[in-house]
Design brief:
Largest sheet: 6 strands, antiparallel, barrel
Number of domains: 4
Number of strands: 14
Structural class: alpha+beta
Order of helices and strands: HHHHEEEEEHHEEEEEEEEEHHH
Helix content: 40-55%
Strand content: 15-25%
Radius of gyration: 47 Å
Distance between the termini: 27 Å
Mean pLDDT: 83
Shape: rod-shaped
CATH architecture of the largest domain: Beta Barrel
CATH superfamily of the largest domain: Efflux pump adaptor protein, beta barrel domain
Low-confidence stretches: none
Strand order of the largest sheet: 1-10-13-12-11-14
């Protein structure tokens, strides 16, 4: 309507003034309800053409959208690696939490039993270590005893062998043979005691430490599973609609416990979806303005920080069916990310709020360039100038938005 009124001042009004003062035709006489089209046909036709051209130029070079929201990421609250029944809940329906605060605990009787079993296993290995050390001492004593017995048998064999050498027949050969067998027997005893000591030493130095290391690893694993039954906040934030109660069953795949909204989520960036036809116009660095339902009658200066290079409507995942293009009924949008031009610009805007956004094309650098032709400079001035119309329309929308929401919507 505003564009039509503006264009009529440039087309219909001059046509009427010519008819009135140039041809002497007046309303109610030569210009009537039935002849107005014929008399002002040039002005009306020019007005319609200029209005359509102006609206097209405004909406193309200064795109607008009502599909703008302060999206925010939520963190699911769920156990990791374990599932079970809730034993204790430490937060209410809604509460502010800090990182590592305990949110709730699962029934941990099974995990506690595993931890206690691992501790008992370590204690058992420690007792076995002391027993093995005693076995080493015992084996050393047995080696000493066996060596003494061996030395005694050798001495007796040497004495009787020397007597036999000096005076043959004084000692029976059978007694010497028995002493040789006894020496071999005592040597075997020494070897057996040495082997027993080596086996006990291996228990102390290798086998039992390896068993203890395995038991300590099992204890650490059991402790990790026990710690996983205590669910803590991963970041500073706020839990909302936390309806978990003792006795509920929580599973990391099928049934999360709730959501945690990190501090600052949805309070720094505004995401807006513009029509695909504006893909060549939307560029990072463009100045924009926004008005949001949760903060009425306020225009927020914004700047486009980035433009997503893909349209979400074309996304697909590999499957067992071929894509059918006609199933994409609604065309996707160009997603643009915007930040406030001034610090604190989004203060008071509730995350998730719906907004209306205008983006404005600026050709100042091209206009200021010396090699830009004069005709193009004039055209670019016109393009930048008509952005004022869109800015005015946004302010009108901001004024009537509360009325439209509270009164005209029928709620």
């Amino acid at each position: 309507m505003f564009e039509l009124m503006f264009c009529s001042l440039l087309t219909i009004l001059p046509d009427y003034l010519y008819r009135r003062y140039g041809q002497g035709k007046r309303f109610g006489k030569e210009i009537t309800f039935f002849s107005v089209w014929y008399e002002l046909r040039w002005g009306i036709t020019g007005c319609l053409m200029l209005t359509v051209s102006l609206i097209t130029m405004i909406f193309y070079f200064h795109p607008t959208t009502s599909s703008a929201t302060l999206y925010f990421r939520t963190v699911p609250v769920m156990p990791v690696g374990v599932a079970g029944r809730v034993a204790e809940v430490n937060v209410g329906y809604t509460a502010a939490v800090k990182k590592d605060d305990v949110l709730f605990k699962l029934d941990s009787s099974k995990q506690q039993a595993a931890v206690e079993t691992a501790k008992r296993k370590i204690a058992e290995i420690d007792a076995g270590m002391q027993t093995a050390q005693a076995e080493v001492v015992k084996a050393e004593a047995q080696i000493g005893e066996a060596q003494a017995n061996l030395q005694q048998a050798k001495d007796e064999l040497d004495v009787k062998s020397e007597l036999q050498r000096r005076n043959p027949g004084i000692v029976a050969q059978r007694d010497i043979d028995k002493l040789k067998v006894l020496v071999d027997q005592r040597q075997s005893g020494v070897d057996a005691a040495s082997a027993a000591k080596q086996a006990a030493s291996l228990q102390v130095s290798t086998s039992l430490p390896a068993q203890k290391a395995s038991a300590e690893a099992a204890l650490a694993e059991a402790q990790v599973l026990l710690d996983q039954t205590i669910i803590r906040a991963g970041v500073d934030g706020r839990v909302e609609q936390f309806l978990l109660r003792p006795g509920d069953v929580v599973n990391q795949l099928l049934r999360p416990a709730g959501v945690l909204i990190p501090d600052g989520a949805g309070r720094s960036t505004l995401q807006a979806g513009f029509g695909q036809i504006e893909a060549q116009v939307m560029k990072p660095g463009m100045v924009a303005e926004a008005t949001c339902i949760s903060k009425p009658w306020v225009i927020i200066p914004m700047v486009v920080t980035s433009v997503q290079d893909f349209i979400a409507a074309g996304q697909f995942q590999g499957g067992q069916q071929l894509l059918e293009a006609q199933n994409t009924v609604k065309p996707g949008t160009i997603l643009a990310f915007m930040e406030p031009l001034y610090k604190g610009g989004l203060d008071g805007v509730t995350p998730g709020s719906s907004c209306i956004v205008n983006a404005y094309t600026s050709n100042h650098e091209e206009i200021s360039a010396k090699d830009t032709p004069t005709s193009r400079k004039i055209a670019l001035h016109v393009v930048d100038g008509v952005g004022l119309v869109h800015a005015l329309l946004l302010r009108i929308q901001a004024l009537i938005l509360p009325i439209q929401t509270l009164v005209l919507s029928g709620h």
